[in-house]
TrEMBL record:
Annotated protein name in UniProt: IclR family transcriptional regulator
Any Pfam family: IclR_C
SMART domains cross-referenced by the UniProt entry: HTH_ICLR (SM00346)
PROSITE patterns with a match to the protein in the record: HTH_ICLR, ICLR_ED
Length: 257
C-alpha cells in the first residue's frame, strides 16, 4: 500500500524524460535516435515525443546535420545557477581564454559542488584533443584538479570530508600515502600535476584560485598531450599559469605573501 501511495505522487512522464537526459549525459558523446532508443528501451513513437519536447525546452540539443542529440544549453544554465557562482565564472572566463590561447592547450575551470569538483567552463585551443571530460563532469581525486581541492578545500565542511573519504577508499594504502606526500607539496608550491588521469597520453596540471579570505574559489587546469604538459611550476608554461592564476585570485581580493 505504501508503495502504491508513493507512486501515485510521482509524475512518471517526468521520470522518463529525466531518464533520457541521464542516458545522453552518461555516454559523454552525441547520440543517434536509435542509440537512445536502444539504451532507454522506450518505444519509437514515445521517444520521438520526448526528444522533441526536451529539444524544444533546450534540455537537449539536436544537431541538424547528423541528427544526433547532446545535452542542451538550458542544463548548463541550471548547473551554473545551482553552483551559485555566475560571477565567479564570468570573472575567470577571460583569463581562461587567454591561458588557452597563450599555451595552445585546453584550459578548464572547476568549482566545488556538494560531492566534488565539477568542470564549469572549458576553453579549447586544440579541438581534436579528447580530454575525457566535458562541462558538468565531476573530476576524481587523482586528477590534477582533484588534488588541488584535496589540498586546499576546507575540511571542516562535512561534504568535503565525505568526498575525500569516498575517494581515498578507492586507493591502496601505498597510493594513499604517496598522495598525502603529493598534497603536502601542492600546499607548498600551489601547483598540481597528474599523469594521464582520465585518458591515455593526456595529462594535466592545475593551479588554485583563492579569495580575500584565502579560501579556495576553484581551480584552473591546463590539459594536453603528456609531452607538452609541465610537471613542475618551474617550467616556462607552469610559471606563466601560476602568475596568471595569481592575477585571478587578486581579482577576488587575495593578497599574496
Amino acid at each position: 500500500m505504501g508503495k502504491s501511495e508513493k507512486n501515485a505522487n510521482v509524475i512518471q512522464s517526468l521520470q522518463v524524460g529525466m531518464s533520457i537526459i541521464d542516458v545522453v549525459a552518461a555516454q559523454n558523446r552525441p547520440l543517434k535516435f536509435t542509440e537512445i532508443q536502444e539504451l532507454s528501451g522506450i518505444t519509437k513513437s514515445n521517444l520521438y515525443k520526448y526528444l522533441n519536447t526536451l529539444t524544444m525546452l533546450g534540455l537537449l540539443y539536436r544537431n541538424r546535420k547528423d541528427g544526433t542529440y547532446s545535452l542542451g544549453g538550458k542544463l548548463m544554465e541550471y548547473g551554473t545557477a545551482a553552483l551559485g557562482d555566475r560571477n565567479v565564472i564570468g570573472k575567470i572566463t577571460p583569463y581562461l581564454r587567454e591561458t588557452s590561447a597563450h599555451t595552445s592547450q585546453t584550459a578548464l575551470l572547476a568549482l566545488w559542488t556538494h560531492d566534488g569538483p565539477v568542470i564549469v567552463d572549458i576553453c579549447s585551443a586544440n579541438y581534436g584533443l579528447n580530454i575525457g571530460a566535458q562541462v558538468g563532469t565531476r573530476l576524481p581525486l587523482l586528477s590534477a584538479t582533484g588534488k588541488v581541492f584535496a589540498a586546499f578545500k576546507d575540511e571542516s565542511d562535512p561534504q568535503v570530508r565525505e568526498w575525500k573519504r569516498k575517494e581515498l577508499g578507492k586507493l591502496s594504502d601505498e597510493r594513499r600515502k604517496q598522495l598525502e606526500e603529493e598534497i603536502e607539496q601542492i600546499k607548498e608550491r600551489f601547483f598540481s600535476y597528474a599523469l594521464e588521469p582520465l585518458v591515455k597520453h593526456v595529462s594535466s596540471f592545475s593551479v588554485p584560485v583563492f579569495d580575500f579570505q584565502r579560501d579556495l574559489v576553484g581551480a584552473v587546469t591546463v590539459v594536453g598531450f603528456t609531452e607538452q604538459i609541465p610537471q613542475t611550476a618551474e617550467e616556462e608554461m607552469g610559471k606563466y599559469i601560476v602568475e596568471a592564476v595569481l592575477e585571478i585570485s587578486k581579482s577576488f581580493g587575495f593578497v599574496a605573501g
